[in-house]
Design goal:
The chain is α/β, with parallel strands linked by helices and 211 residues long. The protein has a domain at 6-40 and 88-112 and 129-208: Rossmann fold (3-Layer(aba) Sandwich). The chain contains eight helices and five strands. Strands 2-3-1-4-5 form a five-stranded parallel sheet, sandwiched between helices. The chain is globular. The mean pLDDT is 95.
Length: 211
């Protein structure tokens, strides 16, 4: 059986990743391509439990090293129990965030080295990487407005960090895309959802050929 494709959506808060993941899943299914839509942190019962620990606003939060370890643990369970089995069944996996979010958030913005984040990923998830990472980039103004509308003024622990932190995240994603152009595709996410999805679909067809 042909292995499925692994597509990750990346970007900062309010980029529109979840919306685009749903649109892509619907498009693939309309073409007869079986797919699984999932997210990080989360995707399995164990990983969803860790998500609650990471994003809940109670208590004083986690040090960046502890945060990175928790993300790596959630990802390990996600990869082992959901992502790899789906790929081996020939399904496409569409994931809202993957390891590049850890590299940007806990790594560059949180003060950990990229080498340390990738070492955790190597141990926990056997260094699995997406076949294609779609980086949706939006202006700070658009990101702020969308995140506010989504969260109704009550962001989670990471989304609620200050503007300087999120600027470091955006810069980190940009640097990763520059460093790994064969795996990353940059998408302008400032427009309406349908227009952005048209660009994503064109990118997928260019990368993989006819879907």
């Amino acid at each position: 059986m042909t292995r499925g494709k692994f597509i990750a959506f990346e970007g900062g808060e309010g980029a529109g990743k979840s919306t685009q993941a749903r649109l892509l899943a619907a498009e693939l299914e309309s073409r007869g391509i079986a797919c699984v839509v999932t997210r990080e942190p989360g995707g399995t019962p164990g990983a969803e439990a860790i998500r609650a620990l990471l994003l809940g606003t109670e208590g004083e939060g986690w040090h960046p090293r502890a945060e990175a370890l928790l993300f790596a643990a959630a990802r390990s369970d996600h990869v082992e129990r959901l992502i790899v089995p789906a790929l081996e069944r020939g399904e496409w996996v569409i994931c809202d965030r993957f390891v590049d979010s850890s590299r940007a958030y806990q790594g560059a913005a949180g003060g950990l080295s990229d080498e340390d984040v990738l070492a955790l990923h190597s141990v926990g998830s056997q260094a699995l990487l997406p076949d294609l990472t779609l980086l949706i980039e939006v202006s700070p103004e658009v990101a702020k407005a969308r995140a506010h509308a989504r969260d109704l003024g009550s962001p989670d622990r990471i989304g609620g960090r200050d503007a300087a932190y999120h600027a470091r995240v955006a810069a980190a994603f940009s640097a990763l895309a520059d460093a790994e152009p064969a795996r990353f595709a940059r998408i302008d996410g400032n427009g309406d959802a349908e227009g952005v999805f048209g660009d994503i679909l064109g990118t997928l067809q260019s990368h993989f050929g006819a879907l």
